[in-house]
Specification:
By secondary structure, this protein is α/β, with parallel strands linked by helices. It is 38% helix and 10% strand. It contains 15 helices and eight strands. An eight-stranded parallel beta sheet has the order 1-2-3-4-5-6-7-8, with helices on both faces. α5 runs parallel beside α6.
């Protein structure tokens, strides 16, 4: 017997456009061509940086050609059962990029449809699954309404932000209605890395990239920008109960960023008088970080040292990133991290993040293949 696992980043997908169109209002179905009126508006924003190996695990497609992440039985066989996952937080596939749409009203309607589709087609089908409230960041006031719409459904465990449709970091006051609604409804806000390549500005600091290798290597820069922005605009002072989850950006870079922020704060605090604590203090109180993609230094002790400084045993949560091409299997993560961190990383830290009790997450599965 051993504790079961919580996976905080599982990308679920739909098989066809028709599956989602059923959840859109008639006017938006007509807009997208779903009623035979000849509309040609795509439901997902196309990616300009193709991966030469493909974005998904080769074995994650259904035998009938179903898209990766769209077959619950296959997800169970490849992820949930082998790793004893009893809570998998769903984070969407390409549909995560609603904030990359130019039309903010269509994006808002899509986010609402995707949330309803997730509840009906996924959460109602398997009680191991919990969802994310996907919001279109183009209109934060409407996003706040969408968060409150799901206030009573505790299966929708977090708010999910990805693409940034503005020139401002996510700490800017324009986004504060999101955080107010998240705190009011008791949800953490997950910020997914790498998505800014579907919108402006790009996820890189010095300019756009030309190849997927560049893009993927620089994904953490978007998370850096957003965390600095959250601190600089006093979001954690304004919303002291806010919890943030940084998804799919790695973690070894965080220590040096916090060192620099603490140094700059000591010299520039007059510019941000509402920031009352060191940036590293806010991080250790408000921020959780997903394990995937776990960095691979030459010696695992080097990774341990980098993660220990940020309180990795208390701040890291397990994420497989299934079914992406670079997803991390449970055994791999388990072997790379100190054994005395395992219970926290694979279970307890996520329970604190989502405010779950032992009763919410079964803990007594028999040993499995991942044991």
């Amino acid at each position: 017997m051993r504790s079961t696992v919580i996976d905080c980043d599982v990308h679920h997908a739909r098989r066809t456009d028709a599956e989602l169109l059923d959840f859109l209002p008639r006017a938006w179905r007509e807009y997208a061509g779903g009623l035979g009126f000849g509309g040609t508006i795509p439901l997902t924003v196309s990616d300009g940086y193709p991966n030469p190996h493909g974005f998904m695990r080769a074995d994650s497609y259904g035998t009938d050609g179903a898209p990766a992440g769209s077959d619950l039985q296959l997800i169970d066989e490849q992820l949930l059962t082998p790793a004893s996952v009893t809570r998998a937080v769903l984070t969407y596939g390409d549909d995560i990029h609603v904030s990359g749409h130019h039309n903010p009203y269509f994006a808002t309607a899509l986010a609402q449809a995707l949330n309803d589709w997730t509840i009906e087609r996924w959460l109602d089908a398997d009680d191991r699954l919990v969802g994310s409230i996907l919001v279109a960041a183009q209109m934060p006031d409407k996003a706040a309404e969408e968060i409150r719409r799901h206030a009573d459904d505790r299966r929708m465990a977090q708010v999910l932000l990805a693409d940034n449709p503005t020139k401002n970091g996510f700490g800017h006051p324009v986004f504060h209605p999101l955080y107010e609604a998240a705190v009011e409804t008791g949800r953490p806000v997950a910020i997914h890395a790498g998505a800014n390549d579907w919108a402006n500005p790009p996820s890189t600091g010095g300019g756009t990239t030309n190849m997927y290798f560049e893009t993927h290597s620089l994904w953490p820069q978007a998370l850096m920008t957003h965390y600095v922005s959250l601190v600089a605009h006093g979001v954690f002072e304004k919303y002291p109960d806010l919890k943030i989850l940084l998804l799919e950006g790695g973690a070894a870079w965080i220590g040096p960023l916090l060192w620099r922020m603490d140094t700059e704060y000591k010299g520039l605090r007059r510019e941000v008088p509402w920031v009352r604590r060191l940036p590293s203090d806010y991080f250790r109180e408000h921020v959780w970080v997903s394990t995937q993609p776990l960095e691979l230094p030459p010696h695992r002790e080097q990774l341990y040292e980098a993660l220990e400084w940020i309180g990795g045993g208390e701040r890291l949560v397990f994420s497989s990133d299934y079914p992406h091409w670079d997803s991390d299997e449970f055994q791999h993560v388990r072997s790379r991290l100190p054994e005395d961190w395992h219970d926290n990383i694979f279970r307890r830290n996520a329970m604190r993040l989502y405010d779950w009790s032992d009763a919410d997450v079964p803990a007594g599965l028999a040993a499995s293949a991942s044991e």
